UniProtKB/TrEMBL annotation, chain A:
Listed name of the protein: VPS33B late endosome and lysosome associated
InterPro entries associated with the record: Sec-1-like_dom1, Sec-1-like_dom3a, Sec1-like, Sec1-like_dom2, Sec1-like_sf, VPS33_dom3b
Topology of the protein relative to the lipid bilayer: Peripheral membrane protein
Locations listed in the record: Late endosome membrane; Lysosome membrane
Family: Belongs to the STXBP/unc-18/SEC1 family.
Gene3D superfamilies: 1.25.40.850, 3.40.50.1910, 3.40.50.2060, Syntaxin Binding Protein 1, Chain A, domain 2
Gene: VPS33B
One BP term from GO: vesicle-mediated transport
Organism expressing this protein natively: Vombatus ursinus (Common wombat)
GO cellular-component term (any): late endosome membrane
Sorted UniProt keywords: Protein transport, Transport
UniProtKB/TrEMBL annotation, chain B:
Assembly mode: Core component of at least two putative endosomal tethering complexes, the homotypic fusion and vacuole protein sorting (HOPS) complex and the class C core vacuole/endosome tethering (CORVET) complex. Their common core is composed of the class C Vps proteins VPS11, VPS16, VPS18 and VPS33A, which in HOPS further associates with VPS39 and VPS41 and in CORVET with VPS8 and TGFBRAP1. Interacts with RAB5C. Interacts with STX17, MON1B. Associates with adapter protein complex 3 (AP-3) and clathrin:AP-3 complexes.
Protein name, UniProt field: Vacuolar protein sorting-associated protein 16 homolog
Domain of life where this protein originates: Eukaryota
Gene name as annotated: VPS16
Pfam families: Vps16_C, Vps16_N
Vps16 C-terminal domain boundaries: 373-690
Species: Vombatus ursinus
Entry's family note: Belongs to the VPS16 family.
Length: 590, 695
């Protein structure tokens, strides 16, 4: 289990540098610049502190500015004077300062920035921890984070050398690429001669593939995220997992030896693996019997600590597994997965629709129901008008009328739409593209796609072979392709695109797929002279997910890397899953 | 050897000096220097002369001539003085000529006599006129200190960043002080003045008397004072003929010297030798020069850095020479050639006789895309000369669109600025321009401009969502975006309104908008919600309890849970709740109430539209196996296996599966055969399977 890497796989760059850099900057800012000695969470609550100054380290969000304004104004009313400092991370936005000004406290507050944008969550995972990117860009059309991402990519190319090749797809990807190139050009001449360590970069918009992000996750790490929510690389295991009365915060990364072996595994294998592991551990403990004093001394001083540590981790993950099994392996979960697979494959649509309807009627979960509706819509290129209306009506009856706005959001992002009667658009499109040149057709397609965002999932799935043929039982213990992350039923679209482009060294031969994906693809292969890139570096690929990536996608690409001798590094605006996507779209009463 | 020392003369006992001519002055002076206001710039900079006719004649019939010479006397500029009487000429550190007029206005000229700007030293100065003035240099820049006719001091520490400071009153000052100077200590500018035998120090807030330590007695007047260039040392010349030299802080005396001359000197100045740090003072009378100090032997000399040298060449418009020096010294482009070319371009845009096109082309040809050259800076200069069109042409060469924005805003080309800001990808810049436009344009034009720029529009819209709800509404109105207007009022119905009447009214407005947007679904759904809200209100009035803001489903559940079954059914009918949902809802509520009798009655009321498996499920959820069993028997054949497994009856489940010969069901049952007593059942299934295979 936990397949080893190919012997020729390139080494991962050392990202601990980023951590050190960030830590040093922060310590400097807090201790030297602002003399901070205690940290509190910024909330909309009064602060009971006698400090002479309050220092807020915040994301540049308008809500946070309101909290701060409330605090300062409360102090003012109480006749209390202190110094207030706001440190924005990763950057300050003019709109935030505007709010401070409108709230009448701009003069009382001094502002600073902490340009920290890359948090290494693991040896191969960098997160910008910007969950709001998704809603800001894909729903509100706000492009304020594009610069931030471009800066982050720029920083990586400064630290680890230039990239030899750059690929991407999506409007946002294109803008990030262009902004980043401008940054590089401004500094041209200063960073000459550095050899690339990471040879390739692939930028991908989340809306190129919503389907994968909407699926239930069944590899261990994804399942842990779906069940317990991993935050910033750590998870809170409750009493049901720790089998004590306390919750425990556990870091989940490659340092955890037990976790590292099961994180990418299909859940059905995990329990067997853990019990085998437990038996091995017991055997190692048992070796104590029949040891003489010297051997025992050796055992206690050298091995016992490691064994105990392993023991602790093992019992935690067994606890987590049990808890997941209790929640997920019930009849309900199996039927849910069955429905998802049916949606992905495109059969028994009627039955799936009734299943979703029942799901809503029973008030199983507002987020889950919404997710299934979206999955149905995207795989079917929109809901037929009758279902579109009735499912929405049912949902409003179950969860309240404010979700009329949720549906408006989902429609705008293309997550939940109504089928265009008679599929007229495709017909017109086809006719037009036969008449005019490719370029003009591309523009026209753009125009059409803005009229109604089309997912074209069925067509894409067919072209890329996303649904493995079900002629033989899929052995999840010995995966044969990336589909194993979804029980062998579906190869994640995002990962398949990356695989294809890397293999073809560009988009050649994928023209039809690109058209169905609404275009905006690019490939730049002459960023540095080919010969100056060490061949090792070309197998190190940085994948940038704009709008978030899921642990399932990470697992799938790790698998692909092992198969093909690549190593993937992930840079994402945030780690996401179906629930987070749905919550970002939901309107809630506040 | 003697040929080297022949021109050295002894000075005292230990020192020698020599005098030789470096160059002769090229000028041909028309006026004697003594009749002129003279100012020589520091570090061998230019010299300005202005005949001072206001000193003697009351009404000058001829206008005086302002002349500027290089330090070697080459004429740089000459212009007729058309403005008012001048009290003082002085040079700023940037080699700008400051002409302080009697009315307190200061006219600023370049060293080629080009007028740059003017500013006033304030109303108080204007009213009381300037009696005396000084130009001084500190780390803040070049400043001006003024003594007014009311015997008050006003000063600014930096003429480039004018902040006027009126110094506190000096008690008892009725006439001109016998002498005064500007001091600079701990980053604060001070004025030191002498009135009779007393010295006073003026700071921002107060006037205090000071006494120089170790001053020889008998002084009844200070005739002259001088502060060193770095403000560390002060020299005082007394009417007793003593020269007191010490720290400018007046904390320590360094040296005192009696020169036995009691006549007031014309001028007194510090000199020092850089290496030995030895200080000396030079005092000049009409026909006498005296040097006093420990070892007075060298005149002040300060090394110019290469940057300053280049700046000076540029100021003198000696661009080719400056470039040659850069090339010779192999200075990096950004520090050297680019900077000089940029200066050249700024000069070029001032040539008003050349057309905009030609200037722009000439500049672009020479500069191309030299690194470190900022086209926006050059354009700003062109705009400063009133050449807006040229500025816009030059901005087009600026590769970084973000850099173009501030100037475009200044030139009131806000819409162009907006497109450039968007091009730059810097959303903060876009937002800045948007707010600028908001103030500059009327609301209609503002919205129209945004409408054509989706990036700016969405940015502003998101801001308004949080901060300016009314503007948001106006934005949607402008676009006739009825869908979003509908959404807006929906949100208002629960976020802004509290009274039920207000909420219903907001919903009604939303309905109207949705109809205009032809979104019949949303309109109908909202009408339903209005109905529901009113009804919930009535329920609260009649039944008590909490109903408002519950979803329809939860409202009905609430009614069922509180035993209002009739009301619940009525509501379900009124709101056309589908049968299936109602059955789910009711059986869940009854199970939650553990009202098993009612549940059984309900199950028999008519044929269940959702089958009977859900009944088994809800009972088992409440761990009531007894009730669950009753329903298991009624479950349809396809779901029977599941039902029996749910109540834990593996044997019956196996029987059904065998009877139905369903392989999937058989393996499902088999997977549940985990108990000790299930062995027989498992065998039974295996046998059935084998039998099925044989057939």
């Amino acid at each position: 289990m936990a397949f080893p890497h190919r012997p020729d796989a390139p080494e991962l760059p050392d990202f601990s540098m980023l951590k050190r850099l960030a830590r040093d900057q922060l310590i400097y800012l807090l201790e030297q610049q602002h003399e901070v000695d205690k940290l509190y969470k910024v909330e909309n609550k009064p602060v009971f502190s006698t400090s002479e100054q309050l220092c807020f380290l915040v994301r540049p969000r308008i809500r946070n500015m309101r909290y701060i304004a409330n605090l300062v104004n409360t102090d003012k009313m109480a006749g209390r004077t202190r110094r207030y400092k706001v440190i924005f991370s990763p950057q300050k936005f003019y709109a935030c300062e505007m709010v401070l000004e409108e709230e009448g406290i701009y003069g009382d507050v001094s502002c600073d920035e902490w340009a920290f944008s890359l948090l290494p969550l693991d040896v191969d995972l960098l997160s910008m921890e910007l969950p709001e990117f998704f809603r800001d860009y894909f729903l509100e059309g706000n492009q304020r984070w594009i610069n931030t991402v471009a800066q982050a990519v720029h920083l990586l190319s400064n630290l680890y050398g230039p990239f030899a090749n750059c690929y991407g797809i999506g409007r946002c990807a294109k803008m990030v690429y262009e902004t980043w190139r401008e940054l590089e050009e401004e500094e041209e001449g200063e960073i000459k001669g550095q050899k690339p360590e990471i040879g390739r970069i692939f930028l991908l918009d989340r809306d190129v593939d919503f389907v994968t992000a909407l699926c239930s996750q069944v590899v261990y790490e994804g399942l842990v995220d779906d069940t317990f929510r991993i935050k910033c690389g750590s998870v809170d295991f409750g009493p049901d997992v720790t089998s004590s009365d306390k919750s425990l915060k556990v870091l989940l990364n490659a340092q955890d030896k037990v976790f590292n072996e099961i994180r990418n595994e299909h859940f059905s294998n995990v329990f067997g693996f853990l019990s085998q592991k437990a038996r091995n551990l017991q055997a190692q403990y048992d070796r104590r019997r029949g040891m003489d004093i010297k051997q025992m001394k050796n055992f206690v001083s050298q091995e016992l600590k490691g064994l105990k540590q392993e023991h602790r981790l093992l019992s935690l993950h067994i606890g987590a597994c049990e808890s997941i099994m209790k929640k997920k392996t019930k009849q309900d979960f199996q039927e849910l997965i069955k429905t998802e697979h049916a949606l992905l494959e495109g059969f028994n649509i009627r039955e799936s629709t009734s299943y979703i309807e029942e799901h809503i009627d029973r008030q199983v979960s507002p987020v889950e129901s919404l997710r299934l509706m979206c999955l149905l819509s995207i795989t079917e290129n929109g809901l037929v008008p009758k279902d579109y209306r009735s499912l929405k009506t049912q949902y409003l009856q179950s969860y309240g009328p404010e979700h009329l706005l949720t549906f408006s959001n989902l429609r705008r992002t293309g997550l939940l739409t109504e089928q265009v009667p008679g599929d007229t658009l495709t017909a017109v499109e086809n006719k037009v593209s036969k008449l005019v040149t490719d370029k003009a057709a591309g523009k026209l397609t753009d125009a059409f796609s803005s009229l109604a965002k089309r997912s074209n999932f069925r067509g894409i799935s067919k072209k890329l072979g996303l649904i493995p043929r079900g002629d033989s039982e899929y052995d999840l213990k010995v995966p044969r392709d990336m589909a194993y992350v979804f029980s062998g039923a579906y190869i994640p679209l995002s990962c398949r695109i990356i695989e294809q482009v890397l293999e073809r060294r560009g988009w050649l031969g994928l023209e039809e797929v690109v058209r169905l994906l609404n275009g905006n693809e690019f490939a730049v292969t002459d960023m540095i002279p080919e010969e100056s890139a060490p061949s090792d570096s070309l197998r190190l690929v940085l994948v940038v997910f704009l709008g978030g990536c899921t642990f399932s996608e990470i697992s799938a690409l790790r698998f692909l890397g092992r198969e093909r001798g690549y190593r993937f590094i992930f840079l994402t605006t945030a780690v996401t899953n179906s629930a987070r996507l749905m919550e970002a779209m939901s309107e809630v009463k506040t | 050897m003697d040929c080297y020392t022949a021109d050295w003369n002894p000075l005292g006992e230990a020192a020698f000096y020599r005098k030789f001519e470096l160059y002769s002055m090229d000028w041909d002076l028309k006026e004697p220097l003594r009749d002129c206001l003279v100012a020589a710039a520091p570090y061998g900079g230019p010299i300005a002369l202005l005949r001072n006719p206001w000193k003697k004649e009351k009404s000058p019939s001829i206008r005086p001539l302002l002349q500027i010479y290089s330090s070697s006397g080459v004429a740089l500029a000459s212009l007729l003085w058309k403005s008012g009487p001048v009290v003082l000429l002085g040079w700023s550190a940037e080699e700008e000529l400051l002409c302080v007029q009697e009315d307190g206005s200061v006219l600023v000229y370049g060293l080629h006599g080009d007028f740059r700007r003017h500013f006033s030293m304030g109303n108080e100065v204007l009213q009381n006129r300037v009696l005396d003035a000084r130009v001084f240099h500190t780390e803040f820049g070049s400043g001006i200190a003024i003594l007014t006719g009311a015997h008050r001091f006003t000063l600014t520490a930096n003429v480039g960043d004018l902040k006027l400071r009126r110094m506190p009153e000096v008690p008892g000052l009725q006439a001109l002080p016998s002498c005064w100077t500007v001091l600079f200590q701990d980053r604060v500018t001070l004025v030191l003045l002498a009135i009779g035998p007393d010295l006073y120090l003026l700071d921002n807030t107060a006037c205090s008397g000071v006494v120089p330590p170790g001053l020889a007695p008998g002084v009844s007047d200070f005739l002259q004072m001088a502060v060193s260039f770095n403000y560390r040392y002060l020299a005082l010349f007394t009417d007793t003929g003593h020269i007191w030299m010490g720290l400018a802080s007046l904390k320590e005396k360094l040296y005192e010297f009696n020169c036995n001359i009691r006549a007031p000197p014309k001028q007194m100045a510090w000199c020092s030798r850089p290496k030995s740090k030895q200080k000396a003072i030079v005092v000049a009378w009409e026909r006498r020069l005296l040097v006093a100090g420990d070892a007075p032997e060298s005149i002040q000399y300060k090394q110019l850095t290469i940057e300053v040298l280049l700046d000076r060449l540029v100021l003198r418009r000696l661009y080719p020479l400056a470039i040659q020096i850069c090339e010779y010294l192999r200075l990096p482009e950004v520090q050297g050639i680019s900077r000089i070319l940029a200066h050249w371009a700024c000069y070029k845009v001032q040539q008003k006789d050349v057309s905009d096109e030609d200037v722009a082309r000439a500049i672009n040809q020479k500069l191309g895309d030299t690194p470190g050259v900022s086209y926006s800076d050059i354009a700003a200069r062109a705009y400063g000369c009133g050449r807006t069109e040229l500025a816009i042409k030059l901005l087009e060469y600026e590769p970084r669109s973000g850099e173009q924005v501030p100037l475009l805003l200044k030139m009131k080309r806000s819409k162009l600025a907006l497109s450039k800001a968007i091009e730059s990808g810097d959303t903060d810049l876009v937002f800045t321009v948007v707010l600028h436009l908001k103030n500059e344009l009327n609301r209609g034009d503002f919205f129209m401009t945004l409408r054509n720029q989706p990036v700016a529009l969405s940015l502003y819209r998101q801001f308004c969502k949080h901060q300016e709800l009314e503007t948001l509404k106006d934005l949607y109105n402008q676009d006739d975006n009825h869908q979003e207007l509908g959404n807006f009022h929906i949100r208002a119905s629960y976020a802004a309104e509290e009274r039920i009447e207000g909420r219903v009214a907001a919903l009604q407005t939303a309905v109207d908008e949705y109809y205009k947007a032809k979104n019949e679904f949303a309109a109908k759904a909202t009408e339903e919600q209005m109905r529901l809200l009113r009804l919930q209100r009535r329920l609260e009035d009649e039944l008590g309890g909490h109903f408002l803001d519950l979803s329809l489903h939860d409202t009905v559940t609430s009614l069922l849970l509180s035993g209002n079954n009739k009301r619940a059914e009525q509501l379900a009918r009124d709101f056309r709740i589908p049968d299936k949902r109602f059955w789910w809802l009711k059986l869940t509520a009854l199970a939650d109430r553990e009202d098993w009798e009612e549940l059984e009655k309900f199950s028999k009321s008519k044929k269940s539209p959702i089958g009977y498996l859900p009944f088994v499920e809800v009972c088992m959820k409440r761990r009531n196996k007894f009730e669950a069993k009753k329903f298991a028997a009624r479950v349809s054949p396809e779901q029977k296996v599941k039902a029996f497994l749910l109540i834990g009856d593996v044997t019956q489940a196996a029987d059904v599966a065998i009877e139905r010969r369903n392989e999937a069901e058989l393996s499902l049952v088999l997977s549940h055969c985990t108990g000790a007593s299930d062995g027989a059942t498992a065998d039974k299934i295996q046998r059935a399977r084998a039998l099925a295979q044989r057939k």
